[in-house]
Amino acid sequence: MQLPLGPDPRSDALARIHAALIAAFGRIIRPDDKRRDPVWVLVQGVIGAQSKTAVSNASTDAVKARYGSWEAVADADLGELEELLRNQTFPSVAAERLRACFRAIRDDRGSVDLRHLSNLPDAMAMDWLEALPGVGRKNAAGVLNTSTFRRRALVIDGHHRRVMQRTGLIPPKADTARAYDTLMPLLPEDWSAEDIDEHHLLVKSLGQTHCRPTAPRCAGCPIRGECRYAAQQPEGMP
Ligand code: SF4
Fold first, then answer.
1. So what's the pLDDT on residue 236?
2. 49-77 residue pLDDT tens
3. Which of 39, 76, 121, 194 is deepest in the core (most CB within 10 A)?
């Protein structure tokens, strides 16, 4: 007879990490007025490769202001779109991806509109978004979680992935998709979309302050007790 499996202890570890990060950094709750419409979040991600968030935010607002509607962006002149996106790190790539993405949405839905995702289960909505040109796992999760959709999807950026790799909660070489597939089932069931958003923002803060890509500052790290990397360091190491 097969005994039922108990809860995964990594879920408890995530909950402890979450609490320790709140104790260290305080609450990081996205204000309602920072939740943009899902298409805005999609655009910000599609054009955002290797660009600073503030730059991509401003470019996204500039595109909306210039064309007046997302629909018009699907028919935009590529050169003009590239000029609007000139502050992005790769303006021509951003322009091509954005127009291709919008045309793919229009081909499938008849207009540049994401409202149909409200009727799809989370996993199907993620799959639909990731099938669009220029849309990866991070952007798809962002559209569902950080927009007005408020869905249960975990955004995993480079900081988040690195922290989770070092703690040992995901494999050391896990890419974003594998990290997502590993972590999503481990999120405590009672976490809302807002809790999941805050979790990402807290872990990202740790990655920006203590768990830097090189020479992580483990000595003062609030989750040191949960971290495999720290446990493997020789005594006396910071
Ligand atoms: S203990 Fe060190 S390696 Fe582990 S999460 Fe903290 S800073 Fe990163």
1. 58
2. 888 999 999 999 999 999 999 999 999 99
3. 39
Is a pLDDT exceeding 90 seen at residue 109? yes
Distance separating alpha carbons of residues 44 and 177, to the nearest angstrom: 20
User: How does DSSP assign 45-96, residue by residue?
Assistant: HHT-TTS-HHHHHHHHHHHHHHHSSHHHHTT--HHHHHHHTTTSSSHHHHHH
pLDDT averaged over every residue in the chain: 95
DSSP 17: H
Centroid of ligand 1 to alpha carbon of 164 (angstroms): 9
For residue 162, give the ligand 1 atom closest to its CA.
Answer: 8
Residues forming CATH 1.10.340.30 domain(s) in the chain: 36-145
Structure tokens at 109: 């839905």
Could you tell me the pTM of the whole model? 0.93
Q: What is the CATH number of domain 36-145?
A: 1.10.340.30
**CB-based pocket (< 6 A), ligand 1:** 163, 166-167, 210-211, 216-218, 221, 223-224, 227, 229-230
Give residue 3's pLDDT: 59
Tens of pLDDT, residue by residue over 75-95, are: 999 999 999 999 999 999 999
Using alpha carbons, list the distances in angstroms from residue 13 to 184, 187, 193: 14, 10, 19
Looking at residue 234, its pLDDT comes to 77
CATH of segment(s) 9-29+155-230:
1.10.1670.10
Residues of each domain in the chain carrying CATH 1.10.1670.10: 9-29+155-230
